[in-house]
Known about the structure:
38% of the residues lie in helices and 23% in strands. Strands 4, 5, 6, 7, 8, 9, 10, 11, 13 and 14 form a ten-stranded mixed beta sheet that branches. It has a three-stranded antiparallel beta sheet with strand order 1-2-3. It has a two-stranded antiparallel ribbon with strand order 12-15. By secondary structure, it is α/β, with parallel strands linked by helices. The protein has two domains: 4-116 and 359-365, Enolase-like, N-terminal domain (Enolase-like, domain 1, 2-Layer Sandwich); 121-356, Enolase-like C-terminal domain (TIM Barrel), CATH 3.20.20.120. A hairpin with a 4-residue loop joins strand 2 and strand 3. Helix 2 (76-86) packs antiparallel against helix 3 (94-114), helix 5 (145-156) runs parallel beside helix 6 and helix 7 (202-212) packs across helix 8 (229-239).
Amino acid sequence: MDTVxxxxxxxxxxxxxxxxxxxxxxxxxxxxxxxxxxxxxxxxGIGYCYSRGLPMGQIIKNVMxxxxxxxxxxxxxxxxxxxxxxxxxxxEHGTLTAALSALDLALHDIQAKRVGKTVAAMLGATVxxxxxxSVIGYNYGDDESGLRDxxxxxxxxxxxxxxxxxxxxxxxxxxxxxATLRDKVGTSMPVGVDAFRTFKTLDNAINRVNLVKxxxxxxxxxxxxxxxxxxxxxxxxxxxxxxxxGESLASSKMIAQVLDHDECDILRIDALVVGGVSEFxxxxxxxxxxxRTFSTHIHTEIHSQLAAATSNxxxxxxxxxxxxxxxxxxxxxxxxxxxxxxGAAILSTSPGFGIHWDWEAxxxxxxx
Length: 368
């Protein structure tokens, strides 16, 4: 039988080697909620989400598991809709939907394993690799020597697209860093910048973007909060630089509003926030219908399987944060992270999402 028989939850908390500055926040660890769903006939599916220190596991255990257990694992959308309907007061809000995303990914993992296919193949994909862009510049350092090393390393891996962190220091320092990047890669490679919602005011944002746009910026990501889409549109009108945001939007309905109000040019989608597989695919289709491309938010193992079945991925490819930087620590929970070859992510060929989980590490990091 394909009914959901058991749901296990692991809260893995992986410490950073040194504190990380993200906007005004200081982060000392990364936390992941891993959901292991078993069916009555023995198929096991795994999903996860960024918990960011929030009680995702308790939400899944207390709110979602009682609804999912006993339901058919072959219909993830039915389970998702029942959970949202039962919890209407919190439906389509970040914390609940992120937890639901983890469960939904596990159910789609089961669905693909049952038919012996990858998730990508189950969704109709025919490609076996997808270009990536490298996220660089988290650490400013005293000079640009570290940044040059990051760029050289990415280029050595065949990567030909970049996104740089901005907003952590002065506008002039950001302009100098963009100049360093362009000196290294030339003028033709796609380059975006991520402001981490640090610009605060429209005037500040306009001044900062005008200072760096001479270096050929494909987009400015997250200049403001997702709720401040009008400011984002005004920033684009004032500077001519495309806007990208959306990783915190918790449903395709929210994304539809952003698209309908013309608030972004490159829709940013996170399958681990938006509600899972179907919501991600619906959102990408909505973007395509509006003539928009989309980008992703890390989680390359998951997003490679989904983006492979789309036609409107951002020209630079999937977002990729190299494990060597020890910023996203997901690789500490795996035997083998996704492989990168000549600037492209190689899709796993194992059934389901094909993630090589290290359960000893997951248990270790789940103990406090």
